[in-house]
Each structure stands twice: as structure tokens, then as C-alpha cells.
Amino acid sequence: MKLLEGKVVIVTGAGGGIGRDFALAMAAEGAKVVVNDLGSSVSGEGKDAGPAQKVVDEIKAKGGAAVASTDSVADWEAANRIVKTALDAFGRVDCVVNNAGILRDRFFFNMSVEEWRSVIDVHLNGSFYVARAAAPYFKSQNSGCYVNMTSTSGLIGNFGQANYSAAKLGIIGLSKSMALDMAKYHVRSNCIAPFAWSRMIGTIPSDTPEQQARLEKIKRMDTAKIAPLAVYLASDLAEGVTGQIFGVRANEIFLFSQNRPLRSVHRAGGWTPESIAEQAIPAMRAHFYALDRSQDVFSWDPI
Ligand code: NAI
To answer: In this predicted model, what pLDDT tens digit does every residue of 92-108 receive, in sequence order?
Structure first.
């Protein structure tokens, strides 16, 4: 018996990159897959039915079951159509993988409202829309799961990605809320922060020998390496695994921490701005976080 036999999975943004490997791996494990992809550019412009259909053809050529969907996750009506595609084609839905994404990188001080909105719309609003559209079906069948793609740009930080970091950290809150609210219906929700060589990170500069060396290392992070964890999370093997944040980078798998109070200071008579400066901050300063970026924390080469 294959791991996802009888299950219907929606993978958004599955026309290329990480999502394509998710769709292929899930189909190989017996899932019937809705391959959703708008077919836009990395920055979210344009539309092309080709990528989603191509992945469907690949799955069918290997004897699997799949159907294409070219609706945008960033629109509530369209997100409902994505879920309806699963119901019309396969009669049910068991897992939503919120993977579709775009980038509009720009330093915060130059970022336009349009750049902010479009990235929030696809990542954060899109994850909510598709997940929410599937929720009534999960609730009534008393089962289901969500796999939500986040990023260390949100968990840790990165230059020029205020829109993307905010959206990806928003997805952490969304995923935890879905895990809490849907637990009584046996619905699970987890996040994956991937590291993989895809067109999305293909714009990294390669002008100097150092940059070229770094790029070669990044290219070793195969998109297909993320898929086993997504398949596991979509399967019944992951029973009881919910509300977690995982990371995958080549052959490494990480479990991320979640925010909890780190230090506390107490002053019986209450605080003034001056006493905060004199006592509270010195007491806590040793535990402040540096202005780290993702690459400062993941400072070793992918294994
Ligand atoms: P990708 O650009 O290869 O794939 C994203 C796909 O989403 C594209 O095929 C695109 O057409 C589709 N898409 C964009 N807007 C859409 C919309 N409105 N509706 C439906 N589909 C839409 O990128 P990649 O690298 O495969 O990214 C997959 C996910 O992983 C994204 O959520 C990304 O933010 C996340 N991620 C990737 C990292 C990496 O190292 N590649 C790092 C951290 C997070």
C-alpha cells in the first residue's frame, strides 16, 4: 500500500520548482493531485497554462492521476475554484499544500505599495484563501492536513524582503491558528521552510569568484530533497504531528523553535522609562538577538 493511496492533494504553485517535485512525489505515493499553477513570472506577472499541464502530463505518463488548475491563489473566488477542481475531479480533498509564491524584492525604504500588496496577496492571503476554502470539507470528513511553505527570510531575516518576510512569518501564525482551530476535527497544519535551487533564487548575483562559489553550493540544494518531508506530513504516518515548523536543506532536516518568553525582570513598584534603561535592559541585553540574516544563522554549507 502506497503512503497516500486514496488521498486527494492540492499543491499550489506546482508547475515548477519545489511544488512540481511535491506533486510528482505525492502522485508516486498514490495521491490524486490537483496541480495548481498560474504560470506567472517570478515577480507574479503574466499567466501560462503550460507549466501546470506539463506536470499533469508527467504524472499521467507514469500512471498517476492528476488534474491541472490555473487559478490564482491570490483571489478568494479563484481559490474556491481550486478546491472545487479537486472535488469535481476526485470527489474529495485530503491535503492542501500552500506553496505558490512570488518575489518582489526591494529595500524597505524604496518598496512600493504594489510590491508590498502583491507579495502579501499571493503568500499570506493566498494561503488563507485556499486553506479556508478546503476547511468545510476537512471539518465534515473529520480529517485533513495543511502543509504551508514559509521561509527563513521571515523566521530569521533577509535584506530587501520586507513584503516576503512579513508574509512568510504571517504564514507561521496562520498555520498555528489552523492547527489549533481544526485540532478537534483531526486536521493537522505544519510549515516547511525550504532551501532549494529554483528559479526563485536564480537571481542571486554571480559576478565575483566568491559569489560564483556560493552559487555552486546553493545549486546543490535540489528541489526534490524537500518532497519527502511534505509527503510524510501529508500521510497518516504524521498522525499527531501538528503546529510545527520544519526546515529542509539538501540532506538536513530542522525543527525550528517557536517564540516563548526568554527572560523576565520584575520590579515591585513598577517601571519608569529611566529604570527600564538602568535595570531592565542591562538585565536582558545579553540575550538580545543580533541583526542576523538567514545566511548568518545557516553559516555552514548544505550537507
Ligand atoms: P518557484 O518560483 O519555482 O515556484 C513558485 C510557483 O508558484 C511558480 O510556478 C508560480 O507560477 C506559482 N505561482 C505564483 N503566483 C501564483 C498564484 N497567484 N497562484 C498560483 N500559482 C502561483 O519557487 P520555489 O522556489 O519552488 O518556491 C516554492 C515555495 O517555497 C514558495 O512559497 C517560496 O516562497 C518557498 N521558499 C523557497 C525557497 C527556496 O530556496 N527556493 C526558500 C524559502 C521559501
So the answer is: 999 999 999 999 999 99
